[in-house]
Amino acid sequence: MSTVAFIGLGNMGGPMALNLIKAGFTVKVFDLVPAAMQTLAEQGALTATSACGAAAGADIVVTMLPAGKHVRSLYVTDDTSKGLIDVVAPGTLLIDCSTIDADSARFVAQHAANKGLEFIDAPVSGGTAGAAAGTLTFICGGSDTAFEQAQDALNAMGGNIFHAGGPGAGQVAKICNNMLLSVLMVATSESLQMGIDHGLDPKVLSEIMKVSSGGNWTLDKYNPCPDVMESVPSSNDYQGGFMVDLMVKDLGLSQEAALLSNSSTPMGALARSLYVNHAKQGNGKRDFSSIFEQFAQSEQIKK
Amino acid sequence: MSTVAFIGLGNMGGPMALNLIKAGFTVKVFDLVPAAMQTLAEQGALTATSACGAAAGADIVVTMLPAGKHVRSLYVTDDTSKGLIDVVAPGTLLIDCSTIDADSARFVAQHAANKGLEFIDAPVSGGTAGAAAGTLTFICGGSDTAFEQAQDALNAMGGNIFHAGGPGAGQVAKICNNMLLSVLMVATSESLQMGIDHGLDPKVLSEIMKVSSGGNWTLDKYNPCPDVMESVPSSNDYQGGFMVDLMVKDLGLSQEAALLSNSSTPMGALARSLYVNHAKQGNGKRDFSSIFEQFAQSEQIKK
Amino acid sequence: MSTVAFIGLGNMGGPMALNLIKAGFTVKVFDLVPAAMQTLAEQGALTATSACGAAAGADIVVTMLPAGKHVRSLYVTDDTSKGLIDVVAPGTLLIDCSTIDADSARFVAQHAANKGLEFIDAPVSGGTAGAAAGTLTFICGGSDTAFEQAQDALNAMGGNIFHAGGPGAGQVAKICNNMLLSVLMVATSESLQMGIDHGLDPKVLSEIMKVSSGGNWTLDKYNPCPDVMESVPSSNDYQGGFMVDLMVKDLGLSQEAALLSNSSTPMGALARSLYVNHAKQGNGKRDFSSIFEQFAQSEQIKK
Amino acid sequence: MSTVAFIGLGNMGGPMALNLIKAGFTVKVFDLVPAAMQTLAEQGALTATSACGAAAGADIVVTMLPAGKHVRSLYVTDDTSKGLIDVVAPGTLLIDCSTIDADSARFVAQHAANKGLEFIDAPVSGGTAGAAAGTLTFICGGSDTAFEQAQDALNAMGGNIFHAGGPGAGQVAKICNNMLLSVLMVATSESLQMGIDHGLDPKVLSEIMKVSSGGNWTLDKYNPCPDVMESVPSSNDYQGGFMVDLMVKDLGLSQEAALLSNSSTPMGALARSLYVNHAKQGNGKRDFSSIFEQFAQSEQIKK
Questions:
Q1: pTM, whole model, 2 decimals?
Q2: How close, in Å, is residue D216 to chain A by CA atoms?
Q3: Domain D3-166, what architecture?
Q4: Which residue in D92, D246, D238 sits closest to D174, CA to CA?
Q5: Residue D270: its chain B contacts at CB < 8 A?
Q6: Which residues 209-238 on chain B approach chain A with CB closer than 8 angstroms?
Q7: pLDDT in tens, C110-130
Q8: Thinking of the domain D172-294, which architecture would CATH place it in?
Q9: pLDDT computed for residue B297 by the predictor
Q10: By the CB < 8 Å criterion, does A295 face chain C?
Q11: Tell me: the pLDDT tens digits for A203-251?
């Protein structure tokens, strides 16, 4: 089995690296937080004293970082330090699993290509539960060759592996999907609440729409109205799940992408405004289906 | 088998009445257009010279009319004429299959109840193809008893029969569903186009989102981007299907319902504005997935 | 001076009737609340035991009622009672000052015309302060003749008297104006807050935009950001002024009007959604400039 | 009089530089297009063979460039060349009149400050007509000292000179204003058209709203409905004025700013979507008040 350098051992990165170890990879880790490295070391990881130190000599580098600026400055040399692409061995495969702006992904891919290196942007979905269980979804951008090479490592960490296209396409596809998801959530919420405001039972209405032309993922898996489905955040005071703050981040990335390509996304833009206001009202740490509460609490006011 | 009076023999009503005949019901029809009655008569229908004439003595009355005002004035007496509820025999079941405002449905149901009659609002979806094939979906509002009684007749005309709740609930549920559908269509269109604007293949992006959290009915059955799916309107220059003008009508009903219940539907309201403008640009007779064209034709403008 | 029947003596109607008395008109009043009539009687009004009783024999009838259904049933005969237009003397001028849907205004105007009577829809703006001071704005719909005849009475109650067009035009013009106002308020709020989020002083930004192409009534008279202007609701915890609930009512009328004429009003529709949600969060009785708070409380989050 | 280096002699920069010459400044110009320099040389300007050549030795540097990336790379050194701030004399005042993102303005201001230089961001409004007439509006960001120093040069080119705050504040204030303007234009258009759809005369409705709470700059100076005002683009087939493409650019900058500060701008975001779609339909070179056409051409469809 090959050697993987894993950089960024947070809530997502930690369990992902662990799954690589379990799958038999030799894993060399780095994180700015020593305790995060220590946890992995106890599971069999080698540790490094810098990101470049971890990457030097690895067959595959996997990174999991907060934002585009971190990814750019880690991979590409700047005023203060060398970049990963300057220190890795020829033939090393670079895989960035962060969710970042497409422009940064393309920037790093281009610099990697200039050095003869393959780079894949591979943002994930599935949350910390998926990271621990090894069932993450990866949406990848990069060449066919690189995508092929990455299979073993990605399969060790995830379930569904998609190839969306060339460099940056993984980020674009993920952000298109999440923008669409945010609209599904808002629109399903307002439709269910309008039904409730007219005296309908949200369970019955959900059942009808689920098998009709209003059918969508939120009705199937993640109904935002409390007590319609069991074991979803809406039935648990919107705890757990996917935080509003993370949806706000993804919607910000979607609008950044829309500006870059001169695209018009009226629904996605409106969803961002509604989610930003929702976050400002103190809901940032609650599940994103809590947007339902913006529409509820209606008294039925008849003319 | 029982006797059904069928009033309103347009593109939908005609084939629906025919399916009742085929199922063995005695059907007595009325329409303001004599030729429409003649066609049914040739298939075995009895004809009447007025709506009341058709309804008198029937076990079940089925109506299929354009708008709430027609339904109100047909069922309930006004200055100029008697209403159906004044002339039908005790025990006659009244079924209105028109798509109208919930208020009108409740108005007629209340007047029927005052006379001891059961009334069901049972708007359909499935279009003229579904009407001909007898595979329409009915979404019903009314009492359990009435819903039970209506089964045989509705099964003769349709496939899925839903019971959404009490009087008016059929109209409300249908309009909630169609409002949600309109948002799915717009949001899927803008997401696909943003992907295209960034160089992604809409087929690949559709495949990814379909099985991810962006999954919805339009990606499954009715992709709005040309040449992604076969045999859908988008791959046939947006001919056939469900006309923009009809979506505009349904979105108008949804906003009427939202005003009545003091509900807030930001996504549905925005979809109505976009569809009204789309219709005004000459697209009223095209399929509603043609809203995709509002987002396409983008040149990719990079900063 | 002529005799005026005044029906509806609420917070607005009471002081309006008083100003007619002060101007020398003989005023005969009716209200369902006896105490409201008593107050006016002490100022010299005659009282009646019914609306029709007040109207019979008057030269001018003025009505000030909550909603379209009240205006319809007061003026036009229905199952239970005669309408005003059945009891007034030939030549009586009918003036409705309620803010109602245009359709109801046209309905009454048409029935009045059928009886040879002139009817003016004359909704007001200016609030209770304007009603007391006699400085209300009237926006009138009706014939030139009727508008001419109404001058003396309207001048006794208001400052600006506009003639918007034929029957219903007063309601339409008022609702167009108030829909536009709601958008000005939301857009000014979000623009000011975006400036604040970037470290600008809202006073300075307001001064600049006021004299630039962003200039609008809210920047001139009613700045929504606290402590930019003195003596406006935003500098008094959004007390007083024009209540959110009343703006929600007017935005509902605007959307009803838009549905009736198949008009597209994306900004007005969005403003309604935002104001409905704002009201549901407990702000219904606060001034409508409090929508500013939906955008405030932002921490400045930099990438 | 002092010496001004002027870099960027396009449709705006050319006439601005000429006004500096007329006011008695010694002006040294540079542009990538030799013909643009030649025109100014004929009016008395000195010419340079590079931007740095023009700036070296000047008391004031004025730049007028298309976008943030041009401003960054001109002022600040990068891999390929020195920046202006490396070559100008100590005490030189730097004034950038481009309309760019606030972040780029702050970036350059910071680098200038690091070298002990004062930098002002001073975006303009008023168009090519204002540039020629010397009546431009400048909205400035920078220190009080720098603002004071810039007065003579700015007065030679413009009429209104505002000081919005520290570095970047000029860009932010301009973009807040133009975002607000775009909403005023759309909302005024939809309100006027709704009035027209109900049979009102747009001239009458405009007169009423202009002096009421719907009053705003577009009703005062720039009515979007054809033939309401003379000498505005709407009465000249939307020729001239401020192009849709430029409004799309400014709305893009506004949304970039909103993302940066985590601000919510639902109206501005919606206006951007509507303007992008309008541009895609072939209206990019027409005046921005042509958005009115998105709402017009309505047939009055009554229920």
A1: 0.94
A2: 25
A3: 3-Layer(aba) Sandwich (3.40)
A4: D246
A5: 270
A6: 209, 211-217, 220-222
A7: 999 999 999 999 999 988 889
A8: Orthogonal Bundle (1.10)
A9: 64
A10: yes
A11: 999 999 999 999 999 999 999 999 999 999 999 999 988 999 999 999 9
